[in-house]
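B., you asked whether I could sanity-check this one before it goes into the benchmark set. Here's the sequence:
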Amino acid sequence: MTDSPTQRWKGVCSYDGTDFEGWQSQPNGNTIQDVIEARLGEIFKKPLRIHGSARTDSGVHAKYQVFHFDATWNHPKEALCRALLSELPEGLHLNSLMPVPKTFHALHSATGKRYIYRAFEGDANPFESRFYWSLRFRRLNVEKMQQASRHLLGKHDFTAFSAIGGSPGDNPVKELRRLEIRRRGPRISFIVEGSGFLYKMVRRIVGALYNVGLGRLEPHQIKTLLANRVRDVNILTSPSKGLCLERVFYR
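And here's what the prediction gave me:
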């Protein structure tokens, strides 16, 4: 009797990142990757490695984080989905799980990602505070931030908007396809979509635009900061709690 062939599986999960130490495996085991791998190990009775589409930091949330793994499963796919979902901790949900071709890779097959960063002018209520950057007494000039955001659209070297600690050799040239800033009452959303992102790039884009919104920077200075390709003190890193991975795109 021959063993069944190994199948590649594509999973999509969502999570409230508040109580997790990010996506990528850490020694303490309190990451999304560690939790999912531990549960898969229980199901398959052996260690399994999963590969994610984005390395979200500690406190960052996701509505659509994609991962894949290889395993042999001789039962209906719905049974595997139920088995994995049944023991996941509060704050982590499995949206879907399906077999895919071996050519699929959660990271390398992705053609783009969309993030949303949320800020609240004032103090967000307890039902929102885990997902918003509360600006307290500060008020932002959204029109000026929108003017500044246009300088970041297109393909650029985003070194100035990266943070130390990213993956070695990561190409700093990325294409920013969409950058919208919307206000709805006290809630301000930054919708950022691109081919890929450097370490903490979205949070630093928001931080720079925040300084524009406060009048600490003029819109045209964003273009200069981008061209200088230097990590400048005017480009602060906004808190992780406001950031959410909204979508990963594939062909």
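One thing to flag: Residues 7-100 form a domain with the Alpha-Beta Plaits fold (CATH 3.30.70.580). Otherwise nothing jumped out at me.
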